[in-house]
Amino acid sequence: MVKKRLIPCLDVRDGRTVKGIQFEGLRDAGDPVALAARYAREGADELVFLDITATNQRRKPLTELVRDVARVLDIPFTVGGGIGSVGDVEALLLSGADKVSINSAALARPEFIADLARRFGSQCVVVAVDARLVNGEWQVMTRAGTVATGREAVAWCREAADLGAGELLLTSMSHDGTKSGYALDLTRAVSNAVPVPVIASGGAGQPSDFTDVFNAGGADAALAASIFHFNETALPALKHYLHSAGILVRL
């Protein structure tokens, strides 16, 4: 069986790691390079780096900072934010990223997913999906969660996978930063609908939330931020907890 993955996330603004609640009220969480080194040392399976203001500021990703983070890592490294062209992806891969995460550009031009999959391979292409629960339906948001697209989340995830996404990074904006647990219904619906791995994001607050998202949610990986950044749960302890609960993880 494939082992479940634990993935810390660095949301980066102005060169610093930040974390908020439902994408708002951001507070400083530390230096991204130092945090990356710590997570690699503690046994993170992968690391995700999201330049959260690049798209709305209409600028390129911070390749110099990506390069600094990559130097301290020996685990798979995904980078997102501001990616809009093949050239952007090439620059990030040359800076040390193993995979790229695309969101707004994929929604604006779904064929961009297929272009990247053909050029770099599906294993390099992660499509990030930010979803908010609106009137009982999971709606896809774009531009760092500020603009509604009118797309239903499960349908968009299925389309992205069909176009060549190798993984889906599925974030519930309704749960993000709340520490109330992952959106199990959304995660399960997407996991059942697509043939590619689903990374659940948004809502981790305690170790049992991870067992829930792996068992009831069907996720292949779980991404979290504040629970790790602010030392509420240590990665080694969480892995041993999951192992004792019967979840197959890399110790």
Describe the structure.
This protein has 251 residues and is α/β, with parallel strands linked by helices. It has one domain (5-244): Aldolase class I (TIM Barrel, Alpha-Beta Barrel), CATH 3.20.20. Helices cover 35% and strands 28% of the residues. The chain contains 10 helices and 12 strands. α1 runs parallel beside α2 and α6 (153-163) runs parallel beside α7. It is globular and about 45 Å long. The protein starts with a strand and ends in a 7-residue tail after the last helix. The model has no long low-confidence stretch (mean pLDDT 92).
List keywords for this structure.
251 residues; 8-stranded parallel beta barrel; 10 helices
